[in-house]
Write a structure and sequence with these properties.
The protein is an alpha/beta fold. 34% of the residues lie in helices and 25% in strands.
Length: 283
């Protein structure tokens, strides 16, 4: 029961618990209704049917997003440096405020920072403290985390385990210097993999080459007859190079033989796939 709530996105996930996307949306609506009259809901203005979440709330509603027509806080003149860190001009209700510089990667973090700024403004935090805080923030572990270099091969690790997260991470990689983009993906849970199989395949197909590990079971048992081989077949249909190996040792040996100088290698997933990059780096 917070005073300020932030909704960055609403998408189909955890379908072992929620019935469907409408059920998920209903839960977010109930969350928004918990906010008090003296509080605020900071919400992504790009979410479908935004009014469903905001209509008749007691609290203040502040929107952030890509379109000035639907959002109070927007980013313009977006640029990225050689490490894919973003900078942009902040506009609030159509008025230019100042330039914002980030030390985290990707377009998704630009919109995350808009939500952080809107929250800070609502809490009357000084402009200089906001800008200094954003510029000093270097991100969290397992979010496009630089792990090291194997010769001239850059190894990154990322926690992405939903198609939308994978898409965001691979769009971030577009701004990071590389020759060939390799993604080593470990699907997380059988229910998620089966429910979102086409979406996973489409998202991963944006890489130059995909290497799949076995599904990380987490809390589940495989009662659905799903495996990483099914995902490999779907990715192959989309014309993307894909390889599947049941053990980490096989994956590591394959990467050592096939990755070349200036390639970018991302280990991806919510399980223990990060161990592959660390083993290659000798950590």
């Amino acid at each position: 029961a917070p005073t300020v709530g932030i909704i960055l996105n609403v998408a189909a996930d955890h379908l072992d618990f929620f019935k469907d996307l409408d059920d998920i949306r209903h839960s977010f609506r109930r969350y928004a209704e918990l906010l008090p009259a003296n509080g605020a809901l900071i919400i992504n203005g790009d979410i479908d049917n935004l009014e469903y979440f905001t209509k008749d709330l007691d609290c203040k509603v502040i929107t952030v997003g890509s379109e000035e027509s639907g959002s109070m806080y927007t980013a313009k003149n977006i640029t990225f440096d050689e490490f894919a860190h973003g900078s942009y001009d902040l506009y609030v209700e159509g008025e230019f405020k100042h330039r914002v510089t980030l030390k985290v990667t990707g377009m998704h973090n630009i919109y995350n920072s808009l939500a952080a700024i809107a929250t800070a403004h609502f809490l009357n935090i000084d402009k200089e403290d906001i800008l200094n805080g954003l510029e000093a923030y270097g991100g969290t572990d397992r979010r496009f985390q630089f792990k090291g270099k194997l010769g001239d091969i850059t190894i990154i690790d990322d926690y992405a385990h939903h198609p939308d997260e994978i898409t965001a991470t691979l769009k971030t990689a577009e701004h990071y210097p590389h020759k060939k983009l390799w993604v080593v993906f470990q699907p997380h849970t059988y229910t998620r993999t089966k429910a979102l199989l086409p979406e996973f395949a489409k998202a991963l197909s944006e890489a130059d080459a995909v290497v799949l590990a076995d599904i990380y079971a987490a809390r589940e048992k495989n009662t659905l007859g799903i495996s990483s081989k099914n995902l490999a077949d779907e990715i192959e249909k989309l014309g993307t190079e894909v390889h599947y190996f049941p053990t980490f040792d096989e994956i590591e040996n394959f990467l050592l033989e096939n990755c070349n100088d200036n390639d970018l290698l991302i280990t991806m997933g919510a399980g223990d796939v990060y161990k592959i990059g660390e083993k290659l780096l000798g950590k």
